[in-house]
């Protein structure tokens, strides 16, 4: 049993944290800006590399570089929105989706131009030893990942429930026209949505780097699980996205559990396929998601 | 020699532009005419490429499935059929939902097919891929064989174009556009939206499979690199948007212009020192993205915007 938790459940929790952070942004941007943002994964990559730049330049630990990555990615997201997405506010949403593919390509190319294509770890050398939670086998970095996720999700919760902007965001996500009629400034809400989405995406990217390493396809490879998590939880439902993220993360890790005999249930090479399968099943069975989100 | 080399280069340029034109026409049927957001072009491309290669390649000594050595035309047809079958399966599930879901689903399919090409060594040859794929007209001398293959590609492109033009002015094409522009109204007219969409999706995807198969036969080797979404998916999207979504001539013009630009930047990159050449490769990728956003913002209609077909006067 303890082996099972150590080898499958805990890794699932770690992966799920990263998915959850990314999926919240996808879900909120969809419900407030009304489009599926396909450059979200590449925002994660960008954030991860910003932190890498700070780590390399100043020799700081990655967690200390995190704030720089969050701020830098937020500003980048705002600039992208201004120049790439805002001209399309009055067009059909699908046009923006195409544009977001263009943006994804641009961010990825910029990362390749600046930092190259070699995978890089944040910290070279011997990894920190196992933290002592016997019989649970958890590394220090895993505690960092879980802790950072909890702090960010708590901050998001406080923002959405306690601040005026958070309430405006929820109002716009529920009914954009009604929100506008009550005098909510649309563009400011949109700007804050980008900041929240970019902060969480960059954090997810940095945490991925802390967990393993960073490479230019980091975010693109996560795009499918992110959307699966957002759809599973219900689009426009931040808490649903968190739930979806953890479900997808844990299911992906469990999929290689040797249920019959000694071979993994599903070859680890197809892990991405799991997220896809969960998503397709969800689309057939309950397209509004677990927490009753929007149906595209 | 100089002139001959240049001519051969031109032939290869036109061949690729023709293959891309076929794929772009397929996307035009998906997106331009029917509003189906297919971002999994690389997946259907890969299905076509692998199916045709496996059926026609010589025995590999167990490195991958194959050794059937069927004639190339059989491979091409099988490529289209298999790509259509995959599209049918995806479409059955996802076409009911709005376009964003289709986008995610097609990305997913393309991704899984890429994993399949990489992982299933006994079928696809894994990372080593498939070698020795036959190219038609190989018995001729190099120049003539290249030229003959180019003509074959252009003939197939012409056939696809005629089919698309016929579809565009046909009642079927009108229904497709009606569904694209106002689904509710089309449904109210008694049109079976799901069935029409599925037809457009399946046929368009089979053209992508044909494009994949032609690429494999032209290059004679096939590795999972060919299924990278950058070229096979995004470049084709840029071609269609730049050329004119919904316009078949525009789709072909877009394929030609964007492919010329793409290879021209490759030539520039080739002139640079290696260190710079690699970076210019990334800069090209950046430009593809920029071009997509720029064209969408400034010239949403593309080079040749869509034109409604002429009304037919039934009285005459």
Describe the protein in words.
The complex is a heterodimer of chains A (296) and B (316). By secondary structure, chain A is an all-alpha fold. Chain A has helices at 2-33, 40-58, 62-85, 93-115, 140-162, 164-174, 176-181, 186-211, 218-233, 238-254, 271-285; strands at residues 130-133, 136-139. Chain A has one domain: ABC transporter involved in vitamin B12 uptake, BtuC. In chain A, strands 1-2 form a two-stranded antiparallel ribbon. The longest helix of chain A has 32 residues, at 2-33. Chain A is globular, with a radius of gyration of 19 Å. The termini of chain A are far apart. Chain B is mainly alpha-helical and 316 residues long. Chain B has one domain (2-298): ABC transporter involved in vitamin B12 uptake, BtuC. Chain B has helices spanning 2-33, 41-56, 72-94, 99-119, 121-124, 142-169, 171-181, 183-188, 193-219, 229-243, 248-271, 274-298. Chain B is globular, with a radius of gyration of 20 Å.
User: Segments of chain B where pLDDT lies below 50 for 5+ residues?
Assistant: none
Question: Which fold name is given in CATH as the topology of chain A?
Answer: ABC transporter involved in vitamin B12 uptake, BtuC
CATH architecture of chain A: Orthogonal Bundle
Subunit organisation of the chains: heterodimer
């Amino acid at each position: 049993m303890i082996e099972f938790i150590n080898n499958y459940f805990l890794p699932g929790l770690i992966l799920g944290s990263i998915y959850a952070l990314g999926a919240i942004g996808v879900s909120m941007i969809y419900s407030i800006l009304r489009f599926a943002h396909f450059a979200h994964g590449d925002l994660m990559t960008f954030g991860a590399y910003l932190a890498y730049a700070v780590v390399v330049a100043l020799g700081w630990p990655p967690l200390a570089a995190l704030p720089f990555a969050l701020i830098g990615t937020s500003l980048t997201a705002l600039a992208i929105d201004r120049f790439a997405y805002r001209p399309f506010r009055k067009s059909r949403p699908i046009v923006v989706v195409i544009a977001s593919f263009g943006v994804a390509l641009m961010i990825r190319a910029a990362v390749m131009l600046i930092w190259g294509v070699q995978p890089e770890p944040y910290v070279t050398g011997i990894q920190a030893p196992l933290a002592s939670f016997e019989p649970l086998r958890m590394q220090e970095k895993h505690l960092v990942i879980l802790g950072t996720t909890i702090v960010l999700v708590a901050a998001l919760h406080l923002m959405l429930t306690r601040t005026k902007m958070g309430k405006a965001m929820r109002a716009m996500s529920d009914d954009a026209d009604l929100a506008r009629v009550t005098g909510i400034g649309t563009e400011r809400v949109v700007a804050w949505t980008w900041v929240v989405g970019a902060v969480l995406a960059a954090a997810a990217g940095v945490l991925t780097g802390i967990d393993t390493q960073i490479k230019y396809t980091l975010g693109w490879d996560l795009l499918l699980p992110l959307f699966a998590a957002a759809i599973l939880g219900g689009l426009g439902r931040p808490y649903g996205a968190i739930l979806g993220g953890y479900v997808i993360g844990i299911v992906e890790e469990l999929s290689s559990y040797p249920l019959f005999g000694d071979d993994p249930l599903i070859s680890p090479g197809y892990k991405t396929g799991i997220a896809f399968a969960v998503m397709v099943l969800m689309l057939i069975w309950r397209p509004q998601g677990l927490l009753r989100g929007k149906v595209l | 020699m100089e002139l001959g080399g240049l001519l051969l280069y031109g032939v290869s340029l036109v061949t690729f532009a023709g293959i891309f034109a076929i794929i772009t026409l397929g996307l035009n049927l998906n997106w331009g005419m029917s509003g189906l957001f297919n971002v999994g072009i690389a997946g259907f491309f890969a299905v076509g490429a692998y199916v045709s290669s496996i059926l026609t390649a010589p025995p590999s000594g167990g490195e991958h499935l194959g050794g059937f050595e069927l004639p190339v035309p059989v491979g091409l047809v099988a490529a289209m059929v298999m790509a259509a079958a995959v599209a049918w399966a995806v479409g059955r599930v996802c076409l009911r939902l709005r376009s964003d879901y289709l986008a995610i689903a097609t990305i997913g399919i393309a991704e899984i097919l890429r994993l399949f090409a990489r992982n299933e060594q006994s079928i696809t040859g894994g990372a080593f891929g498939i070698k020795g794929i036959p190219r038609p007209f190989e018995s001729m001398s190099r120049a003539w064989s290249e030229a003959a293959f180019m003509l074959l590609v252009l003939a197939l492109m012409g056939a696809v174009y005629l089919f698309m033009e016929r579809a565009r002015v046909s009642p079927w094409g009108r229904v497709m556009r009606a569904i694209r522009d106002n689904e509710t109204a089309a449904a109210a007219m008694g049109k079976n939206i799901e069935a029409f969409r599925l037809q457009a999706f399946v046929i368009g995807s089979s053209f992508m499979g044909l494009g994949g198969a032609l690429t494999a036969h032209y290059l004679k080797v096939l590795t999972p690199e060919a299924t990278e979404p950058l070229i096979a998916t995004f470049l084709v999207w840029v071609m269609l948007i730049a050329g004119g979504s919904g316009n078949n001539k525009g789709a072909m013009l877009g394929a030609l212009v964007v492919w010329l630009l793409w290879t021209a930047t490759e030539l520039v990159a080739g002139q640079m020192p290696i260190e710079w050449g690699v970076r210019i490769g990334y800069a090209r990728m950046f430009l593809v993205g920029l071009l997509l956003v720029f064209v969408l913002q400034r010239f949403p209609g593309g080079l040749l915007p869509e034109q409604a077909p002429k009304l037919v006067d039934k009285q005459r």
